[in-house]
Amino acid sequence: MAKPISRIGSRRNGRIGSRKSAPRRIPKGVIHVQASFNNTIVTVTDVRGRVVSWSSAGTCGFRGTRRGTPFAAQTAAGNAIRTVVDQGMQRAEVMIKGPGLGRDAALRAIRRSGILLSFVRDVTPMPHNGCRPPKKRRV
To answer: Residue ranges under compositional bias (Basic residues) (predicted)?
Structure first.
């Protein structure tokens, strides 16, 4: 009878890679900026999509209506990028999503960080005349 093949990464074997291993060198990555009217979230991933660092205006200490401001977005972008620059990121692609005030400020902060941007893409979802609007109110 053949030996059963052990499943790689099962719970008994423990975790495959420890969460806090030696900081890996990431030469290229993707910076996702999600700018809503209430908050701005900046996520930095490697090219495969694994999150390396993230920050938002809320985690930077801004509360209430101040989270939606351009200065809060600039601070959030600076915090998220500072850690990946230490890990050796030199090139990045930027994906900007949402209509918020922090779009331009976050992009300005990314440009100022010294990372070379290969392209900047707007990935805001646009409906192709999607959902049916609610019925008009009868008086």
So the answer is: 9-23
Whether the Cβ atoms of residue 29 and residue 14 lie closer than 8 Å to each other: no
Compute the distance between CA of residue 43 and CA of residue 55 in angstroms, rounded to an integer. Answer: 6
Q: What does pTM read for this prediction?
A: 0.77
- Domain housing 112: 28-122
The answer to whether position 132 is within a domain reads no
Nearest to 31 by CA among 137, 131, 119, 133: 119
Residue 91 lies in a domain: yes
DSSP strand E in the chain: where?
28-35, 40-46, 51-56, 91-97, 116-122
Total domains, the chain: 1
Q: Note the pLDDT tens digit of each residue in 100-128.
A: 899 999 999 999 988 999 999 999 999 89
Residue in 51, 104, 110 with CA at minimum distance from that of residue 78: 110
Residue 131 falls inside a structural domain: no
